[in-house]
Amino acid sequence: MFVDRHDAGVRLAERVREAVSDENVVVVGLPRGGVPVAFEVARALGAPLDVIVVRKLGVPFQPELGFGAIGEGGVQVINAGVVQMAHLTRGEMAGVTEDEQAEVMRRASRFRRDRAPVDLAGRTVVVVDDGIATGGTARAACQVARAHGAGRVILAVPVGPPETIESLRADADEVICLETPADLFAIGFWYRDFTQTTDDEVIELLGRSTGG
Asked: What is d(CA 35, CA 147) in angstroms, rounded to the nearest whole number?
């Protein structure tokens, strides 16, 4: 369906341009794979590009089950239902949160080098990933962008299952998805080249971004 992430970004940018006009826009990519897609969207819009670093907060005895997520600045999104179901204590939650916050800071620092994060307050924030499966990370990213003061949040992805895309409309003001196959299988199935994006490529793309 897509040649690679850059092809997906070029095609996604065409749709995103229809959703934004002369707004104060910033594009944020979910590292690592979302950044090459976001780079093309930002270039088409003439907008600044940044990363939005989000980490899942996993239940200690079942890490794949997330009780929330954390982003830069200590912004937390907590799923009270999971907390209650797992009978998590404040101490257990605090331990996981501390570890993941340190990882958020480490990754953000590595990707940006000496650049400050782009201010999201009052801006239209386009959150971009290379595809969506369960939607957990994208949902958290939208909520974190909102917590950082985004005036409008647009989630833009090349591909995702229809039911997940529909559910994400509760977290973003607008959701743009080019392809919504009923049988997703895996995100990589929809790319001819789905080679893993490296940290160095993320750093390079952020450095090359000249928008805004």
From this structure: 21
| CA dist., res. 5 & res. 188, Å (int) | 10
Residue in the block written with tokens 């005036």 = 151
Name residues whose C-beta falls within 8 Å of residue 208's C-beta, 6 or more positions apart in sequence: 39
Is the dihedral angle over the CA atoms 174, 133, 27, 21 positive or is it negative?
Answer: negative
Q: What is the DSSP letter of 2?
A: B
In sequence order, what DSSP letters do the residues of 97-139 get, joined into one string?
HHHHHHHHHHHHHHHHTTPPPPP-TTSEEEEE-S--SS-HHHH
The predicted-structure confidence for 122-132, as pLDDT tens digits, reads as follows 999 999 999 99
pLDDT in tens, 176-198: 999 999 999 899 999 999 999 99
The token pair at 162 is 């229809």
What are the tens digits of pLDDT across the range 60-107? 999 888 898 888 888 888 889 999 999 999 999 999 999 999 999 999
Query: Measuring CA to CA, which residue among 120, 111, 134, 115 is closest to residue 197?
Result: 111
Q: Bridge-partner residues for 2, per DSSP?
A: 191
How many whole angstroms separate alpha carbon 146 and alpha carbon 76? 11
List 66's β-bridge partners, or say none: 58
pTM comes to: 0.89
